[in-house]
Specification:
41% of the residues lie in helices and 17% in strands. By secondary structure, the protein is of the alpha+beta class. One of its GO terms (molecular function) is phosphorelay response regulator activity.
Length: 223
């Protein structure tokens, strides 16, 4: 693709996903530092994909579309996109827009490595740590990290204890369901210790657990 080639000449490594499903899978691999989302996808509207990407990660997102509707632009920005461009555009313009977003992120202390949004903070996938908005950092053990990563990659989804046990086993003998409950109780205490909202980690009685997303305040236009 011409656009990918232009980004490579500008010093970026590029990857491509041809569907929303593939994009989410690649994002979960932890290999992306930014995403450019086209609204026209074969399996999902790009606006919906933008919401799913933002729920899983804090990476910069630029939405690109040939549609001229004002509502698309507002919806994308409302759901967490960092910028929005309408086709046709010059590849250089898109590169400059991404450069600017990344520079702003560096000034604000945005992480350069992959992270997942988690309980109002960010899960550092490379550093195996949970970072609060205050900058306070919680180092995680291997099992605790695997548990939080599994929860953060499945926001607002009820996960059974059996699913959680499978996700954190990593080749070790599986834990009991009671052990999972104990881990969750300890995890809530640790979230509180760095000022995060432990209430976002909800018990679904008789089933398992769910990590909910923090509610975003409505904009004046959305009230």
């Amino acid at each position: 693709m011409l656009l990918a080639a232009y980004f490579r000449t500008a010093g970026y490594a590029t990857d491509r996903a041809t569907s929303a499903k593939e994009g989410l899978r690649k994002l979960d691999s932890g290999s992306w530092d930014a995403a450019i989302v086209d609204l026209t996808l074969p399996d999902e509207d790009g606006i919906v994909l933008t919401r799913m990407l933002r729920a899983r990660s804090s990476i910069p997102i630029i939405v690109s579309t040939g549609r001229n509707g004002r509502e698309d632009r507002l919806a994308a920005l409302e759901l967490g996109a960092d910028d929005f461009v309408t086709k046709p555009f010059e590849p250089r313009e898109l590169v400059l827009r991404l450069d600017n977003i990344l520079r702003r992120g560096e000034r604000r202390g945005r992480p350069s490595g992959p992270r997942l949004l988690c309980a109002g903070g960010e899960l550092d996938l490379a550093g195996h740590a949970l970072v609060a908005p205050s900058g306070e950092c919680l180092d995680l053990g291997a099992t605790e990290f695997a548990l939080l990563r599994f929860l953060a990659r499945n926001p607002d989804r009820v996960l059974t204890r059996a699913q959680i046990i499978d996700a954190i086993a990593a080749g070790e003998p599986p834990e009991s369901e009671r052990a999972v409950d104990i881990r969750m109780s300890r995890l809530r205490r640790r979230l509180k210790s760095i000022g995060l909202d432990a209430a976002l980690l909800k018990t679904v009685y008789g089933v398992g657990y769910k990590l909910t997303l923090p509610r975003r305040p409505l904009s004046p236009a959305g009230r």
